[in-house]
Amino acid sequence: MKNQARIYLLLLFVLLKYPLQSQTKQIPTTLIEHVWIVDGTGSPARKGSVRISGNQILSIGNLKPIAGETVIDGKGQYLSPGFIDSHSHHFGSLKKEPTGVAMTNQGITTIIIGQDGDSHPMDSLTRFFQQNNIAVNVASYTGHSSVREKIMGENDVFRKSSLDELEQMKKYLANDLQKGSLGLSTGLEYESAFYSSKEEVLALAQLTAKYNGRYMSHIRSEDIQLNEAIDEIIDIGKTTGMPVKLSHIKIANKDDWGKAGLIIKKLELARKQGVDITADVYPYTFWNSTLRVLFPDKGFTNLKSAELAVNKLFDATQSVLVRFAPQPAYAGKTIAAIAKERNESEAVTLMNLIQIAADYKKANPNASGIEALAGKSMNDEDVAEFLKWNQSNICSDGAAGGHPRGYGAFTRVLGKYVRAEKKLSLSEAIHKMTGLTAEHVGLKQRGKIAKGYFADLVLFDPSTVNDNATIKNGKALSSGINRVWVNGKMVYHQQQATGELPGILIKRN
User: Fold this and answer.
1) pLDDT digits (tens, 9 = 90+) for 297-323
2) Which of 87, 287, 338, 353 is 20 to 30 A from 370, comparing alpha carbons?
3) Which residue range(s) make up the domain with 294?
4) Which residue blocks in 179-297 are alpha helix, DSSP H?
5) pTM for the full model?
6) Under a CB-based contact definition with an 8 Å cutoff, are residues 449 and 79 in contact?
7) In 3-state terms, what secondary structure has residue 75?
């Protein structure tokens, strides 16, 4: 017994002097205190603190620092969920620029790609994340045009598909949906999908619905046949029963300016009839696309079609050719200025630029991004009406260069439409950038400041937040975005990337 007692005493001595290390290492925490919390639900801001642990939000409230944790004094600024960009073209820049400053400088922490019918297969996205680290999260739709090009051939999509081709498209789409795609996206105004039948699109949408996916569409027309194009997406929602989203809603025909309220009434009627239809919108009156979208009938050599474009569909005096590979000197000039330089009418210049670009493509078949136009086609009153609709969320439709929306869409909303013009309250705008967007695209545990949600966060000053990017300087950083966290890691601070690259590929549950 004495020996046993000695052994116990010896063990006690050893344990006191050399305590056993816990099997589980304590995860460090960070406390963000002295902030106004705008939680992404649409509720008013409230004072408090947020504690994060690892990649998640641990607690919210009147919290006090605990020993050993990192404490960040928010100094009375506003803390919101990270902004979710429901329509992004930023992915192409992330291999070269993995810190994603184009996104984080405006508070974006998650981008939704695969838009306008153009996507990467889910397998290739998975490989990308296995081989690369980036600062933001990515989720993707499967693009209708990409599927068509894969099955029909890139140069043979200017027609309806055959029954056999449609069956092959279904198999390709089903495989992508099984691997985590959010759903089906279409770009029906673009030539690679313009010639598809409504039956083809509906068949693919019905398949998507069977996998509990969603449908998002750059509809067949945003100008002279806008109402018919909206009818098509409503019919898809009605027939399939799945959520459908109208991409970057706009009115691009001068004759219909001021009718945003009528469009919203049409969408609300569809919702009352059981169609879960929503929209996203970017806060600009000009778009960025190809010159060819200005020809609804695809009559690129038809003078009447060109005159319709000039007279009704865009303002040649305010629309800037942002890129033109055949003659780089044209970049940065308006169509009106180029027409004057060429001693031509604006309509003739429009046709000639399209032909020059086509000839360049023929001579350089591997070239991409040959031309792009920032086309002035909307008025601000309609943009504001669409922004205010309770089922619209904010998007950028941007890339890392060119149109200023690529660097400033979200901060523009906060500076122009919230602070300056008071078209939206701050909590409404944040809801449209976070919680509502997550709901619209089906993301779980993101878009809100709530216990157990992923710690995607933005600390900003509502009195100074503003976009600074312009057509001439499309990469100017926003003001007022102080810190940005993605999955608990700070990726942006004081207008600089921190070097942290915690972004993940988000797959549909």
Assistant:
1) 999 999 999 999 999 999 999 999 999
2) 87
3) 286-377
4) 191-194, 198-210, 226-240, 260-272
5) 0.93
6) yes
7) coil
